[in-house]
Amino acid sequence: MGTLVVYSEDSAEHRYTICLNEASDHYFLIVDGKPYMEQGHLFVGTFDDVHDKLKELRAAEDLKTI
Asked: What average pLDDT values come out for the chain (66 residues) when binned by 10 residues?
C-alpha cells in the first residue's frame, strides 16, 4: 500500500494534485509538489473535502488575477 494520485489539474500558477493514502483511506492535497498544510497540519479528509479545498484555493487564485 502507498499513495495513489486520483486527480490532478493545472492552473496558470499552480499544479494541484489529490492523493489517496491507501493505508488510512484519507485523501490529501499537494500543491506544486508540496503537501497542503493548514495550521501546521496536513489537510486530510474525504475526497469531497479535499476537492472542495482545491476549488477554494483555485477561486482565491482566480481573484488575484482579476
From this structure: 93 94 96 96 97 94 69
User: At CB < 8 A and 24+ separation, what contacts does 43-52 make?
Assistant: 47/6, 47/18, 47/20, 50/18, 51/7, 51/18
Specify the amino acid at residue 35.
Answer: P
Looking at this protein, which amino acid is placed at residue 57? L
**Can you give 2-63 as a three-state secondary structure string?**
CEEEEEEEECCCCEEEEEEECCCCEEEEEECCEECEECCEECEECHHHHHHHHHHHHHHHHH
pTM, two decimal places? 0.89
